What does this fold into?
Amino acid sequence: MTFARNLPIVSPDLPGPETFRDAELAVACLRRLYDGATEFLCEHFVAALKSGDPGKRFRAFYPEVRLTISSHDTIDSRLSFGHVSEPGSYATTITRPDLFAHYLTQQIGLLIQNHGVAVSVGASMTPMPVHFAVSREAGLTVPQEGAAGFTLRDSFDVPDLATTHDDIVNGYGYLNEDGSRPLAPFTAQRVDYSLARLSHYTATGPEHFQNHVLFTNYQFYVDEFIAYARSALADPESGYGALVVPGGAEITASDAEFTEPQKMPQMPAYHLKRKGGGGITLVNIGVGPSNAKTATDHIAVLRPHAWLMVGHCAGLRNSQRLGDFVLAHGYVRDDHVLDDDLPVWVPIPALAEVQVALQDAVAEETQLEGYELKRIMRTGTVATIDNRNWELRDQSGPVQRLSQSRAIALDMESATIAANGFRFRVPYGTLLCVSDKPLHGELKLPGMASDFYRTQVARHLLIGVRAMEKIRDMPLERIHSRKLRSFEETAFL
It folds into this structure.
């Protein structure tokens, strides 16, 4: 029988909460509190690794932002964020204020401006897991349980599923431990968990991710993205300053060489960087809804301004040709990976701002418009399925369902990415390219697809980039509109 050890708890000395009417000063305080907590844990963790069982429990806490509203303020009803809906106490734990400094300054500043009250910054009641505290220390990792020479859980806090979840974004009525309502869509532990997973899956640090994310399911798009990035770096008017590839190599000159890892990660990410995070990240998520959900689950904590799927699909109409584009206006969700988080009866609407940006980008790149654009692009429903070889089964059932839904294309990622965008309040869109027509005997075979790959991938990738640049130029309140917000929303985007 194992008995719990009643060890003394040692924590850093902390000042009491401070109030601020200046967002930058509030974020500076968050950074001091966060840095103090991580330095405390790292120092004692390193000492424990050297000397063994410390005979104490070391505990530090995440900082938090707190807001108390006592009256029914009249807020500009056009705003979808930056305010709370009714009187009460609101709070959120904060991690990595260095990484989220711009976001936090912006969101806290809106609260102060819209409500005319100060925010409070101090230590929360949520312990910081040692795994996340040491994550930024090069060469310092937490060994697996039993390998440290002492019982890790006795001496330090470890990740806790009670504060690592999606209850807030899923609308499950989550309240903080003290009864206050959440200010932000994710708790600090949930954010820390995803930041760690992003580094693992993409082989690049979260600090490199840009606010506009393209997802693809083929390496061909990666090659074209790198080529485009090199041309952008050669153009001083482009505004792009660097390209970061898996492994962390960063180039700033168009002809610079870089080395990628010998063993590529599961979802390699490439970041064409621009000041203020205004660049574009491309993630090759591979094939399948599980990968699509995994990638978007974790990228969502970075609060991007938009994500788009640009990949291949099966065309379902006889009038389509290989290489035609499909702009999704609706989705049939037969992927199942989000059924427990977002029921299939929830509609996933097309977002007008994203749709217009994509259509305009197609028109510009193809030099077609109006009725002529219909020659190469269809708009309609995209179905996403979790069985890549669905056509090897009895087709009567699937084909009937696809026909009834008016689907014009089938893939394995788009509806998942759109649904998770809806769930996480991240603007989303889909532009696919027809690479095969299984219902009409045009299967995706190497000989048939080679011309398509050679001629269409570069154009398709460039359309995605152009659409993101159009979205980047929109006012924040326009792209993050009310249509993605539910009855009770967090004040932070």
Observations:
- The longest strand covers residues 306-315.
- The chain has a mean pLDDT of 90.
